[in-house]
Amino acid sequence: MTDRSTGVAAAKGFRAAGVAAGIKANGKPDMALVVNDGPSAVAAGVFTSNKVKAAPVLWSQQVLTTGKLTAVVLNSGGANACTGPGGFQDSHATAEKVAEVLGIGAIEVAVCSTGLIGERLPMPAVLAGVETLAKALAPGADSSLDAASGVMTTDSRPKQSALTHPSGFTVGGFAKGAGMCAPNMATMLSVVTTDAAVDQPTADAALRAAVGQTFNRLDVDGGTSTNDTLLLLVSGASEVTPDPEVFTAALTEVCADLVAQLQADAEGVTKHVTISVSGARTDAEAVATAREVARDNLCKTAFFAGDPNWGRIAMAVGNAPTEFDPSGLDITLNGTVVCQGGVGVGDRMAADLSGLDILVEVDLHAGGGRGTVLTTDLSHAYVEENSAYSS
Amino acid sequence: MTDRSTGVAAAKGFRAAGVAAGIKANGKPDMALVVNDGPSAVAAGVFTSNKVKAAPVLWSQQVLTTGKLTAVVLNSGGANACTGPGGFQDSHATAEKVAEVLGIGAIEVAVCSTGLIGERLPMPAVLAGVETLAKALAPGADSSLDAASGVMTTDSRPKQSALTHPSGFTVGGFAKGAGMCAPNMATMLSVVTTDAAVDQPTADAALRAAVGQTFNRLDVDGGTSTNDTLLLLVSGASEVTPDPEVFTAALTEVCADLVAQLQADAEGVTKHVTISVSGARTDAEAVATAREVARDNLCKTAFFAGDPNWGRIAMAVGNAPTEFDPSGLDITLNGTVVCQGGVGVGDRMAADLSGLDILVEVDLHAGGGRGTVLTTDLSHAYVEENSAYSS
After folding, report:
1. ipTM of the prediction greater than 0.90, yes or no
2. Which of A161, A336, B88, B193 has an alpha carbon within 20 to 30 A of A115's alpha carbon?
3. pLDDT at residue B182 in the model
4. A-to-B residue pairs, Cβ atoms closer than 8 angstroms
5. Most B CBs within 10 Å: which of A289, A315, A317, as the mutation test of the B interface?
C-alpha cells in the first residue's frame, strides 16, 4: 500500500525544488520551494506554541487565515527569529518574490525558516535563490529529495514519506529537525501534501488529529522552538474524496513515519526510546507522565548506558503532574517487569536494554488513560553537538 | 561574623558522628548521627514533593508531626525508596535502635537515606553502625566533618556551614547531593542545627522562608528526588532568643552557603550559572521563567561551551509559563546586553562566558516580579557520571 520514497511531490498536482542559495557559508543546500498546481488550494497548518515566534511563523499564520496556500518557500541557515520588524519585512519580501516569479499573490505564499536565532537573513542570496528555485520546480522523486535536503540543518539525512491509498489518493511530505523540541537552533519544519479532494475543515481537523498523535508525541529535549511549522497542502488532483476517517488515518501514518525518522536522526541519538503509560486517570495525564520521563536527564543518561535503573523512572513518574498511588506503580522495561506495586521485583539486570530500541511501560493503576511519547537518550554526542554548534 | 568551618555540631547542645558501617561496598563512610542535647528539642523539616517518597521520608514526616526531634540518623549507600512495607520497617527498626542506644523514644528519631532506589538496606550493617555511631558522638569540628562525610554519595567533598550571630546564637549544618533535583540516585539531604532559643512555629516559619529562597532555587537537572529532606534541630542552649527576622536571616545565610556548595559540586559542573529574571508579572512567574532556562538542555550545553548563544535563552523564556510581550524581551550575559526589545544588539561574542561564573539577566518588562535560580551546565562529565553510575 505504501511507497515512502518520493516525498513532498509524490501526490498529483505538486512540484518541488531545493537549491544551495548561498545562505549557508559551507555551500550546502539551504532553500526549498513547494508549489501546489491545484485544482484545489486548500491548506492547513500548525505552528509553534512558543511565545517567542519567528518572523516567518508570524507571516505564515497571517496568510493561512484564508485557509489557502499555493506555495511554501523554506530556508535553512537562519531562523529569522528575534529579528524584529526588519525580520518580518524579510519574510514578507521573500513571499513577494515567490509571488512574482509564480504569477500569484504573496498572500498565497507561506514562509518557513530554520537555523540560528537572532541573525538577519542575507536577503540578496534569498531573493536570488527564489529565482533559481522557480526554474528548478518539477514533480517526482528527485525534486522531492532536493526540497527535503534544502531545509536540513544538523539533520544527517533527509526525512521523507509518502503513501498511496487503494482508493487512489496520495499523501506525502518531508520533515527536518530532531523533534518538536528544538534540538540546537535547528527547528522542526514539515510540509505534507495530498491530492485527495478534501475541503479546508476536513484538512484542518485531520491535520490536528494527526499531529496530536505524532509530532506532538516526540520529545527530544523539551525545548519547543521558535520556528516549528507543519503545513498541509491539498491539490485535489486525484479527484478522490476519501472518508474523513480514512484521510486522517493516511495522514497520521505519513506523519508517524516522518516522526520516526526525526527520532532516529535526533542529535546524538544512540537509543530509540518509547515511553508508554497506561492506567492514568486521563489520556492527558498519561501523556504528561510519559513526557516527564522523556525529559528527565537521569532517565536519558541511563538509557544511553543501557542501564535498567528503573528507580530513576519511578522518580520521574513521581514528579509528573498526575495523581496515583505509588504503591500501585508497575514498570516494565523491554518486556521485563522490574517494579511491581511500587517495589522492585527480580533482578533488574534481567531487562536487556543493550539494543537500539527501548520500550518503557508504566502502569499507574489509577484509571483508563493511556498515552505514548517517543524520545531519545542523552549521550556524549548530544552534548558535543550542542556545545560545539554555531555562534 | 561568620565561622563556616564547623558544621552541624557548631551550635551549643549538639553532638555528631560519622562512620563507615559497611553499607557501601567500597568501605567509604556511609552513616551519620546528629544528637540534640537540648534543653529544647524543637525541630522543623521540609521533604520532597515527589509523590514517590522513600521509606525514611514517610517515617520522618510521621515523627516530625510532634514538632520535636532529639536525633537524626542518616545513611548513604541506599535510598530505601520503592522498597514497600519492608523498607518502612527498616527505617522504623533503625530509629528504634537509635532510641535504644540513646535512651530515648523512637518517635524522637528522624531517619534519612540516600543512594540507589529500589534496593533494601543491609540491616545488620545499619544496626551495628548505629552502635558505632553512638560511641563516636562528640561536639565540634571533627565530628561535624565525620557526619558530613557519612552522607556523601557522588559528592566530591563535604558541604558544611556555620554562622555565629553577634547576639550569641549559632546556626550550622551540612548538606549532601548536587541539588534539590536528583543528580544520580543521590539525593539532597541536609541537617541544620541552632542553639537559638526559638519555639517550633518560629523555627518552622524561618525554615520554610529560608528554603524558599535557597534550596528551592537550585535546579541542577529538574529531577526532585524521592528522598530530599532538610531538618532543622533547635537546642536553645545559647539561651539567646533572637528576633524572628534576625533568626530567619541567619538561617537563610547558612542555607545559601550550603546551596552554593551544592551548586559548586554538582555532577559534571564546569560553570556556576545564575539565572536572574525581572519584570515578570509576579515573583512566582519570574522564578518559573528562570527555572525553564535552568532546565533547558540547549541553554545548558551552550553554558558548557561558554557560548553566548542568547537565542536559546529566548527560546526557553518563550516556553515558560508566564505572560509577556516578546518585543520587550531584554537579555544580558555577564553584563553585556545581547538582546534588547526582542532583537539582537551588537556582537554577541562581546559577552565573555569563558570564566567559571555565568550571570544571565532576563527582563520581561511585564511587571515588578523578580526571582533567581541557580543552575549548572550540561557537560560531558555529567553524562559520563550519570551513565556510568550504579546498577
Report:
1. no
2. A161
3. 40
4. 216
5. A315
